[in-house]
């Protein structure tokens, strides 16, 4: 009979000598190497693979082995324990402070954003990010924090309007001049082609009435060749006329955009609705005149009693326009509805939202290129109640003024 060699460590096993080897293979106190191969960092075995009692292996791998895998609490990926700190420094889901240290509205403390969302946060959301005025391309070179931009646009609306109109007029003049030059060139080309046709016709008549000698066969082949050239020239004339028609259509579309900008600033509709009481009582909905965001043709409309809830719903619809084939689809934008308060301008009724990736996927038909004139809107079904909209602060002389602002956002 013999006891376990690890009796001093607490093993109470005893049996015949022939059973020792079998016991040691199962003994929970027997030292074994870490299955993951981690090494000792100090002591006599520094640099060698760590040895532990068999019963401690599971605990070691779970809690202290630097080569054991842990789950990142932010991205849920498996990462070795020794690599967790470097992983957190680069984890795209790790919450980091906004570079501008903006604060959460209505809360204390700086806003935290997922590391991967920082570029989108800065480009679309951060109220402290320095952004260019939307009318930068027209000549307004102001840069300021995003939260101050709405006030800037309101205060300088008349300046922005003049800048955009000047730019639009110049483009219309340039396009008109280009079309005029194109027409003159095509008319000159058409005239030259007609002259050639006249000469070819005369030559054909001459060849047909000339002597009927042995060379007549050869000349007739030339006549046939000239007839083919005549047919080709006629085709060219038809194509030139088609190009002139397309240029006329393009000029018409540009004029449409120009005239729409003559009454409304780009990206904003100031919609005055008169006879509000009658509208609420007798109409299901009211539709605005078209307005433009860049070259996107838009329209606003109001549902006065949405689904019999007593709520006023406001929507934006992207309409079929003359430049749809040159624009990016699906469209993504930020929209704001402002019902003006005639008594206190700092207490308007406002609603702001922007198109998210989830909405683009859920309602694709509302943001893709329009193929028909049907209105497919997006907005809020509960902007304000019918009772509130008739209050004196909003309704003046039986009319209300609703501002609709749209800002184009980068594609996702």
UniProtKB/TrEMBL annotation:
Record localization: Cytoplasm
PROSITE patterns on file: MATH (PS50144), ZF_TRAF (PS50145)
One Pfam family, short name: zf-TRAF
SUPFAM superfamilies assigned: TRAF domain-like (SSF49599)
Stored InterPro entries: MATH/TRAF_dom (IPR002083), TRAF-like (IPR008974), Znf_RING/FYVE/PHD (IPR013083), Znf_TRAF (IPR001293)
Coiled-coil regions, chain positions: 190-257
GO terms for biological process, alphabetical: regulation of canonical NF-kappaB signal transduction
GO cellular component, one term: cytoplasm
Principal cellular location given in the protein's record: cytoplasm
Superkingdom in the source lineage: Eukaryota
Keywords: Coiled coil, Cytoplasm, Metal-binding, Repeat, Zinc, Zinc-finger
Residues in MATH domain copies: 266-406
GO MF term list: zinc ion binding
Zn-finger (TRAF-type) residues: 23-75, 87-149
All copies of domain TRAF-type, residue ranges: 23-75, 87-149
PANTHER family, sorted: RECEPTOR-ASSOCIATED FACTOR, PUTATIVE-RELATED, TNF RECEPTOR ASSOCIATED FACTOR
Protein name: Uncharacterized protein
């Amino acid at each position: 009979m013999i006891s376990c060699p690890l009796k001093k460590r607490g093993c109470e096993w005893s049996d015949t000598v022939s059973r020792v080897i079998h016991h040691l293979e199962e003994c929970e106190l027997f030292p074994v190497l870490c299955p993951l191969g981690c090494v000792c960092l100090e002591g006599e075995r520094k640099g060698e693979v760590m040895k532990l009692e068999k019963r401690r292996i599971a605990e070691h791998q779970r809690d202290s082995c630097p080569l054991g895998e842990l789950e990142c609490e932010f991205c849920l990926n498996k990462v070795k324990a020794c690599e967790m700190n470097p992983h957190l420094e680069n984890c795209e889901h790790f919450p980091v402070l906004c570079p501008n240290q903006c604060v959460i509205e209505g809360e204390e403390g700086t806003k935290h954003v997922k590391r991967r969302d920082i570029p989108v946060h800065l480009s679309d959301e951060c109220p402290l990010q320095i952004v260019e005025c939307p009318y930068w391309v027209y000549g307004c070179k102001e840069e300021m924090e995003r939260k101050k931009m709405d006030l800037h646009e309101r205060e300088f609306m008349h300046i922005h309007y003049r800048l955009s109109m000047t730019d639009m007029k110049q483009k219309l003049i340039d396009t008109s001049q280009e079309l005029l030059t194109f027409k003159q060139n095509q008319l000159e080309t058409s005239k030259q082609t007609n002259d050639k046709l006249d000469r070819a016709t005369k030559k054909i008549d001459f060849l047909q009435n000339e002597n009927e000698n042995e060379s007549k066969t050869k000349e007739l082949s030339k006549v046939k060749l000239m007839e083919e050239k005549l047919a080709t020239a006629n085709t060219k004339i038809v194509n030139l006329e088609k190009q002139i028609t397309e240029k006329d259509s393009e000029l018409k579309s540009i004029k449409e955009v120009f005239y729409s900008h003559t009454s409304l600033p780009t990206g904003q509709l100031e919609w005055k609705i008169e006879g509000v009481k009658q509208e609420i009582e007798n109409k299901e909905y009211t539709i605005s005149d078209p307005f433009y965001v860049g070259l996107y043709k838009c329209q606003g409309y109001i549902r006065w009693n949405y689904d019999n809830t007593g709520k006023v719903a406001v929507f934006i619809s992207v309409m079929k326009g003359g430049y749809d084939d040159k624009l990016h689809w699906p469209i993504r934008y930020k929209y704001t509805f402002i019902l003006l308060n005639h008594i206190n301008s700092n207490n308007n009724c406002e609603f702001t939202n922007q198109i998210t990736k989830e909405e683009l996927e859920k309602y694709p038909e509302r943001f893709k290129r329009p193929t028909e004139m049907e209105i497919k809107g997006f907005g809020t079904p509960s902007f304000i109640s019918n009772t509130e909209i008739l209050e004196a602060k909003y309704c003046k002389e039986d009319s209300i003024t609703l501002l609709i602002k749209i800002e184009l956002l980068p594609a996702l």
